[in-house]
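User: Second chain of the day. Same drill as before.
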Amino acid sequence: MRLGRLPWINTAPVFAAMDRGVVPCGAEVVTATAAELNDLLAAGELDVSAVSAVEYARDASLYHLLPNLAISCDGPVHSVALFSKRPVAELNGATVLRTASSRTSVLLLELLCKHRWQVSPQFATVRAEPNDLAGLQALPHDAVLVIGDAALHLRASGQYPVFVDLGQAWKEWTGLPFVFAVWAARRDADRTEALALHERLCASRDWGVAHLDVIAAEAAARTGIPAATCRAYLGDLDYDLSYRHLAGLTEFFGRLAADGLVPNGSLTFLTAA
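Assistant: Same format as last time:
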């Protein structure tokens, strides 16, 4: 099996036990950004992967969702944020840069701008990984959407007077959790192997959630982000996919479908034949 993995701190709890050999991985792991993993899974170059939630909605006929496994928040997410030089109410016609690393976050921002904040910015796409942050200031813009570890670094820098957490914005708008990433298996992947890999991922996730202090300390050493920040960040994330999370996911997909951004569809999960 070929397994896709995100490079950011938020995925560490799912893979920590596999990284240590506590839970066997049993797959060839490919690490890439969410947008890159989306493309690899769609092209059949991966069998199972973490992907942007919207990737599933765009072509659900290709995939089965893996049950009980996701990256979500029920309030602040900390790592998906709009950094702005002015209040969001003043962004009508303004230049807003959007990360190229995540399609779900980009579409969530579009929904919030159109329906929640009722502004129509001029959007442009840029690279916004940690190594790209220094160059952002040279680009003309009024606000920028940044995700992952880069968002944690950028917030700590204090360069922007306005910080809007998109997880919190969704919660205030809908009262629901927001699911940023899901794990999906291609429908043409070997079902038995995919199910076994799903069990190992969930076992690794359970170990990781029980050892967040250790994972946060390792993340801090790797990224330079303070350990307390990493621990608080991981503690606010959820790695399950409960009924409440599914309600938030289907609400998001329904709003995207109403705007013609994804086809209208339904959720299909990987199950034993």
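The domain at 2-72+178-258 is CATH 3.40.190.10 (D-Maltodextrin-Binding Protein; domain 2).

User: Great, on to the next one.
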